[in-house]
Amino acid sequence: MKLLMHICCGPCSCYPLKKLRADGIEPVGYFFNPNIHPYHEWDLRLKTAKQFAEKMKMELVTDDRFMLRDFLRRALAAEGEAAAPVAGTQEEALRFMEAYRAQKNRRCRMCYAWRLEQAARYAAENGFSAFTSTLFYSIYQQHDVMREIAERFADVFGVALYYEDFRSGWQEGIDLSIELGLYRQGYCGCVFSEEERYSRVVQKAVKKANRAQKAARLGL
Predict the structure, then answer these.
(1) What is the Cα–Cα distance from 212 to 72, expressed in whole angstroms?
(2) Residues 6+ positions from 85 with CB-CB distance below 8 Å
(3) Which residues touch 184 (CB under 8 Å, ≥6 apart)?
(4) Which residue in 170, 203, 207, 209 could disulfide with 93, CB within 3.0 to 4.6 Å?
(5) 153-178 pLDDT tens trace
(6) Which 3 state secondary structure label does DSSP give 60?
(7) Whole-angstrom Cα distance, residue 32 to residue 46?
(8) How large is the angle between the packed helices 191-198 and 200-218, nearest 10 degrees?
(9) Mapping DSSP to helix (H, G, I), strand (E, B) and coil, where does residue 84 land?
């Protein structure tokens, strides 16, 4: 099987590559991640992917375009009206959480679709019989949504999806990435996930909304 493996980063590639090789499959890596920002972070992850490929002797194809403006146009169109990170009353907090999660889900779905579509297209245009992605390794992503999207683009481009749930190797992958000395990022990749990870304002609003949800469930 000639398999193209879309890789989102070096650390997330550790376990999938090990598992595929154990199964007798030698994938070609494909780095296409226009979601990663700012530039320094994108450049660091690209260099880490190349470092990983070199250490593991894996062939790697990279798309070296930094696509901040394209990503923002797509992301903002997908999310719709922004949810303001302010939660006053319990009712306002619940409304915020509902809107916040909905816009995040729409934005993430767009991001999955863009990367998986490009992986399927590249695989079809370059003689690969199948494609997969290290996105299926992450315990933080919407796994079923990604699989549905990948299957759809497999049909569109006439190339097979090699599906495997790599999440069972989550800790093993972490251990391998540490052994290899790879840079490990602190957030998913886009500026929105960076905000969720580090913004005290957003974190405070989310915590307040979560407390409001708990109180509502308990009838308080």
Answers:
(1) 31
(2) 96, 100, 199, 201, 202, 204, 205, 206
(3) 11, 177, 178
(4) 209
(5) 999 999 999 999 999 999 999 999 99
(6) strand
(7) 9
(8) 70
(9) coil
Q: Residue 197 and residue 203: Cα distance in Å, rounded?
A: 8
Q: What is the rounded distance in angstroms from the CA atom of residue 37 to the CA atom of residue 46?
A: 12
pLDDT of residue 98: 78
> Is 0.85 surpassed by the pTM of this model?
yes
Average pLDDT over residues 106-124: 97
Q: Tokens for 186?
A: 């602190």
Whole-number Å distance between alpha carbons of 115 and 138: 15
The pLDDT tens digits for 2-31 are 999 999 999 999 999 999 999 999 999 999
Q: Is the pLDDT of residue 86 over 60?
A: no
CA 162 from chain centre, in angstroms, equals 18
Q: What percent of the chain has pLDDT over 70?
A: 89
Spatial separation of the C-alpha atoms in residues 142 and 120, rounded to whole Å: 19
Task: Check residue 95 and give its pLDDT.
Answer: 75
